[in-house]
Design a protein that fits this description.
The protein is 41% helix and 12% strand. Strand 5 (192-196), helix 7 (199-207) and strand 6 form a beta-alpha-beta unit. By secondary structure, it is α/β, with parallel strands linked by helices. The protein is globular. It has 2 domains: 8-224 and 417-439, Glycogen Phosphorylase B (Rossmann fold), CATH 3.40.50.2000; 228-415, Glycogen Phosphorylase B (Rossmann fold). The longest helix has 25 residues, at 51-75.
């Protein structure tokens, strides 16, 4: 059986515009279309009618999303938790009768949280008898509800007594959701593929009690990046800047999120200041009071911190290009778009060897890595991690061949070329369809 020239594919996402998962989804849709496939992206917007009623439904959906998030933040989750549960109990399975879904050869799930798809929707999706590929952006697809499990490995067997819930016990929300997803994955069997952008996430998925023994496929296919489009058409800077002071760039929608490592970066900069190196630091994201709280001490020590706010795509690429290095001190990440964007500007990256970051940064070739640190590390361990991060920053700043480091960063995009990623997806879908026809 020869691979067909094109598939009819539907990508499901809770947003086409907001967040890293939405960006990755729309980039994937574009490269699959470029490969000759017919791609439809369905999101809440696609089910809203035109005109006043549609705008009203959008506002109600957005209000509900934010209200549910806030209520969970204060009533359900523990501080700093990343847990979602509200999409699973409810849904509208009639939406699975959308013409594009009925005609599709395969369906690709992306981010489906914020009340977009419920468990009844997913069961109805399986009733369409089509391969379902879940392109994961974190661990949520194979846990009882957490997006990043941190040091917890309960998902390898069964969830319950979740440390991210204020009220936890053997039969808590995480335990119930785990069992529900386990049944769904078993029902899906070989019709389901969990696709991870990083080997790290794929390895965790394979260990999950939801996936193990279900017959579901687990594959690693990175998020695509097209320099001509996603790089905003800007040429990479492949020579060192000659700045009198190192210029660092940090980006996070919410720098105060402890998982993003803002506090560790501040500690690392404090250490560099004591060692006689001061830097210019540009920060993209929300300038929260918590994020600003330590900046005055840094500036008193000679560093300069410039708050850029939330930036558009082109302004972000320009910020990467201005920098001597991009710093991503996250404690746990999957496959950050920000690293790809930095590479597109020819800017080396420094971060902890955490999650998928460890496979994206190659020491001395496109940046530098500091040893990973546990989310629940002691204060002493955090202090040592900050020193290690400062050392990694120094290795890039003082690299004897800085131009080669920038060239190496740009060349790292080879692994995520659109045509390469599209072929891997095409081959996986073709293999699933072949297996599906044998089962039938």
């Amino acid at each position: 059986m020869q691979s067909p020239k094109s598939f009819k594919l539907v990508l499901l996402t809770s947003s086409q515009t907001s967040g890293g998962a939405a960006i990755a989804c729309m980039r994937q849709a574009r490269v699959l279309r470029q490969a000759g496939h017919q791609v439809t992206v369905l999101s809440p917007e696609t089910w809203w009618p035109d005109g006043f009623l549609g705008r009203l439904m959008q506002r109600v959906y957005t209000l509900r999303k934010h209200l549910v998030y806030k209520l969970q933040q204060y009533l359900v989750w523990t501080p700093e938790a990343m847990f979602s549960g509200n999409p699973w109990p409810a849904g509208d399975p009639s939406r699975m009768q959308h013409p594009a879904l009925k005609e599709a050869d395969a369906v690709v799930l992306h981010w489906i949280n914020h009340g977009f798809l419920g468990s009844s929707d997913l069961r109805a999706l399986l009733n369409l008898e089509k391969p379902v590929l879940w392109h994961m952006h974190d661990q949520w697809a194979f846990t009882g509800g957490c997006h990043y499990s941190g040091a917890c490995t309960a998902f390898e067997n069964t969830c319950g007594s979740c440390p991210q819930l204020r009220r936890s016990g053997p039969d808590d929300c995480s335990g119930r959701q785990f069992l529900e997803r386990q049944k769904w994955a078993a029902q899906a069997g070989g019709r389901l593929a969990l696709v991870a952008p990083s080997e790290w996430l794929a390895g965790l998925a394979a260990k999950s009690g939801i996936v193990r023994g279900s017959g579901a496929w687990v594959r690693c296919i990175p998020n695509p990046f097209d320099q001509a489009v996603d790089g905003q058409g800007l040429q990479p800077r492949l020579v060192t800047s000659g700045h009198s002071r190192p210029r660092l760039f940090f980006a996070a929608v919410n720098p105060s999120d402890s998982r993003k490592g803002w506090g560790l970066l501040m500690m690392a900069l404090e250490h560099l200041g004591r060692e006689g190196m001061v830097c210019d630091v540009e920060v993209a994201g929300k300038a929260t009071e918590l994020a600003r709280s330590r900046v005055q001490a840094l500036e008193a020590g000679g560093h300069q911190v410039i708050w850029l706010g939330l930036l558009g795509s082109k302004a972000m690429q320009e910020a990467y290009a201005r920098a001597d290095l991009f710093v991503i001190p996250s404690l746990q990440e999957n496959f950050p778009n920000t690293i790809l964007e930095s590479f597109a500007a020819g800017t080396p990256v420094v971060g902890f060897a955490a999650g998928g970051i460890a496979s994206m940064i190659v020491e001395g070739q496109n940046g530098a890595l500091a040893p990973a640190i546990d989310l629940l590390a002691s204060e002493a361990s955090k202090a040592m991690a900050a020193v290690n991060l400062a050392s990694a920053i120094l290795r890039v700043v003082q690299h004897p061949q800085g131009t080669l480091l920038r060239v190496g960063a740009y060349q790292s995009l080879e692994q995520v070329r659109p045509e390469r990623v599209a072929k891997e997806y095409t081959d996986l879908i073709h293999a699933m369809l072949q297996n599906f026809s044998k089962v039938l």
